[in-house]
Design a protein that fits this description.
Length: 150
């Protein structure tokens, strides 16, 4: 089964699994948007929150770009479905884009955005109506046990 990682899960897989992240992410999907979301997160952690320094930010960004080369970086096709889903679930357009791309590619969505996962779970009937299929959601913390089953 193919997995589509949003930026929150992609960054956490890198943090949690370090070198094993390459094996976990290889051949799976993310959106082109993820590189900008993660870059913004690294900027925020370095500049605003002072959790990491610029050197660590640059190292993490370099690793991200190497990982993106072994993943399929895609974009969702149905912008109308994205906007409908964003409106109906009251989530950001970019969050809805991950959901739509997952459905379009018959992939499980991997997200660590618990607010997004909860919105999707609470509104599953709405999402099914818009997407035409049920979507499965995992967190990066569940990846190992999921992959062991396949």
């Amino acid at each position: 089964m193919t997995l589509l990682f949003d930026s929150s899960a992609l960054l956490n897989v890198i943090r949690l699994y370090k070198r094993d992240a390459f094996d976990i992410l290889r051949g799976n999907l993310t959106l082109s948007l993820a590189r900008y979301e993660i870059g913004n997160t690294l900027w925020k952690e370095a500049i605003l929150l002072k959790r990491i320094d610029i050197r660590e930010s640059l190292e993490a960004l370099s690793l991200l770009y190497r990982i993106l080369k072994i993943m399929a970086v895609i974009d969702p096709l149905d912008s109308g479905a994205i906007l409908k889903l964003a409106y109906e679930l009251q989530v950001a357009y970019y969050d809805a884009s991950y959901i739509v791309a997952s459905a379009e590619n018959n992939a499980k969505l991997v997200t660590d955005d618990m607010k997004l996962a909860k919105k999707l779970q609470e509104n599953i009937d709405t999402a099914v109506r818009i997407l035409g299929r049920k979507l499965e959601v995992l967190s990066s913390y569940e990846i190992r046990s999921f992959q062991d089953r396949f």
